[in-house]
Amino acid sequence: MERWIWLSSIPHIGPVTQKKLLAVFGSPERVYHASPAELQEVKGISQRAREAILASRSLEKPKRLLEHVHQKEIWLLPRDDPLYPYYAKDVPESPVLLYYKGLIQPQFPSVAIVGSRTCSNHAKFATEELSYKLASLGIPVISGLAKGVDQYAHVACLANRGRPIAFVAHGVDDCYPKEHRSLFEAIIDQGAVISQYPPGTAPKPKQFIQRNALISAWSSHVVIMEAEVKSGAMTTAHFAEKQARKVFALQNKDSQSPDGINHLLSKGVRPYVSATSFISGLE
Q1: What residues does CATH 1.10.150.20 cover in the chain?
Q2: What strands, in cross-sheet order, belong to the sheet with 270-272?
Q3: Pick the CATH number of 2-71 from 3.40.30.10, 3.40.50.300, 1.10.150.20, 3.40.640.10
Q4: Where is the Smf/DprA SLOG domain (predicted)?
């Protein structure tokens, strides 16, 4: 497992390059031991990346990190693990290694519910209704542990003994926002909190964008309950379209920020009408 950690943490190498290396060499072990000549033969990898691979050949830090995650009761999910959803692992934005707390039970379909941190009562009700009903069917509800729609989706899923999955933009050894600590722990008890970042990683703006890409990658359907044009929910919708997910947007006359939803609907995104009609169309 140390070499999975090593491969996922090489400077200047992201998920796309990580997967290119695995496609050629077959395993992190073989990437680790690849010669300069062998690395030179890999197409689509920059000289900077090759130099980074050669310069980072040490397992000292990965071994220390592995000890740390064991102490923190954090699990590692490499892309060759059967628990890594088949429909997520080849998405360009999906890393080759994830960290998580809780229990992962991949299932298709799975539904992401995202939206504004400050949403209307109509969006709140729609979120809670859909999440509660999905939980009753054993369908995973995926969101991002943020305030507002994310929070309502997680809480409703938990209330009906569902299996929530929360993707976070920091290490899973901590909770952000801090006031969601009890929700964070409850999700771990019934579902899973997942991150591509090792423990000790603090949240940064860029990491929330990558978090949104993973929310979409792990979902078959993405429901945008409310969103401003420039928002995390809209970023998730962008990734969902790019990743060929089925995207829905709630039509909401009470919304204080309708521009994002109107933009999505104008592009041909499916309107979300009700939990009943949405669930009847799940495949």
Answers
A1: 2-71
A2: 75-78, 97-102, 192-195, 164-167, 141-143, 111-114, 221-224, 246-250, 270-272
A3: 1.10.150.20
A4: 77-279
Q: Which fold has domain 111-280?
A: Rossmann fold (3.40.50)
* Residue ranges in the chain assigned as alpha helix (H): 2-8, 15-25, 28-33, 36-40, 47-55, 60-71, 86-89, 121-136, 149-159, 181-190, 205-217, 232-242, 259-266, 275-280
Instruction: Compute mean pLDDT per 10 residues along the chain, 283 residues long, and list them.
Output: 95 92 95 94 91 94 94 95 93 95 90 92 95 96 96 97 96 94 96 96 94 96 90 93 95 70 88 94 78
Amino acid at 176: Y
Cα(81)–Cα(114) distance, integer angstroms: 27
Q: Which regions of the chain carry the CATH code 3.40.50.450?
A: 111-280
Q: Is 70 in contact with 89 (CB distance < 8 Å)?
A: no
pTM: 0.93
Q: Name the residue type at position 188.
A: I
Alpha carbons 81 and 98: distance in angstroms, whole number: 11
User: 197-231 burial string, b = 16+ CB within 10 Å, else e?
Assistant: bbbebebeeebbbbbbbbbbbbbbbbbbbbbbeeb
